[in-house]
Amino acid sequence: MTPKTTLSVVAAALLIGAGMSTAAVSMASDPTPPAQDEVVALVNKARTAAGCAPLTVDGRLTKAATEHSADMARRGYFNHTTPEGITFSERVRAAGHPAPGAENIARGHTSAAQVVDGWLKSRSHRKNIMNCSLRTIGVGVEYDGNYWTQDFGR
Fold first, then answer.
1. What are 106's strand-pairing partners?
2. What's the pTM value of the predicted model, to 2 decimals?
3. Longest C-alpha distance within the chain, in Å?
4. Locate the SCP domain: which residues (predicted)?
5. CA–CA distance from 36 to each of 20, 60, 86, 87, 150 (Å)?
6. Rounded CA gap, 22 and 40, in Å?
7. Rounded to whole angstroms, how far apart are CA atoms 153 and 135?
8. 147-153/100-107 β-pairing
9. How far is CA 84 from the centre of its chain?
10. How far apart, in whole angstroms, are the C-alpha atoms of residue 141 and residue 153?
């Protein structure tokens, strides 16, 4: 190998190694998908125990919920309506879901079990979870401030 070829191979190996270590760190520090799945599982367990059908995950609702959690964390507000006045229903429709049903939000909880337990202990949040006419769900989590959004569809 020529010195130039050797240098190119070493540089490529370093870049690949750096990228792999960054990817490993990113994957390890981003527990969002398992937390989202756990929220859905816990909600469905509660619903089926109460006689409701389990909810199906809808990617459009997940997108709306994820973006809302991130927006609340980034801009430091906690509300179903954005500072510009965009409502839950408008956000869900903008994400492509035609039939918004309900929304639960929470902050400060550090686990899926904790947030679902809190929602189930709140009359209004529990009412949304146990609404048997709702069929779909999307969950969004932002760990900067532990913002959680649960969007339901019909």
1. 148
2. 0.78
3. 73
4. 41-152
5. 25, 14, 24, 22, 9
6. 29
7. 6
8. antiparallel
9. 22
10. 18
Domains (range + CATH), the chain: 35-153 (3.40.33.10)
Residue among 105, 99, 104, 111 nearest 136 (CA)? 99
Q: Which H/E stretch holds residue 38? A: helix 32-49
Report the alpha-carbon distance of residue 16 to residue 30 in Å, rounded.
21
Taking only the tens place, the pLDDT of each residue in 59-113 is 999 999 999 999 999 999 999 999 999 999 999 999 999 999 999 999 999 999 9
9 confidence band (pLDDT: 50, 70, 90): very low
Using pLDDT thresholds of 50, 70 and 90, give the confidence band for residue 10: very low
CA neighbor of 46 nearest in space, from 135, 138, 149, 116: 116
Residue 84 amino acid letter: E
CB of 97 within 8 A of CB of 64?
yes
Helix, coil or strand: residue 87: coil
Give the whole-angstrom CA distance, residue 56 versus residue 79.
Answer: 25
Q: Are 138 and 69 in contact (CB under 8 A)?
A: no
Q: Which of 29, 33, 91, 77 is nearest to 57 (CA)?
A: 33
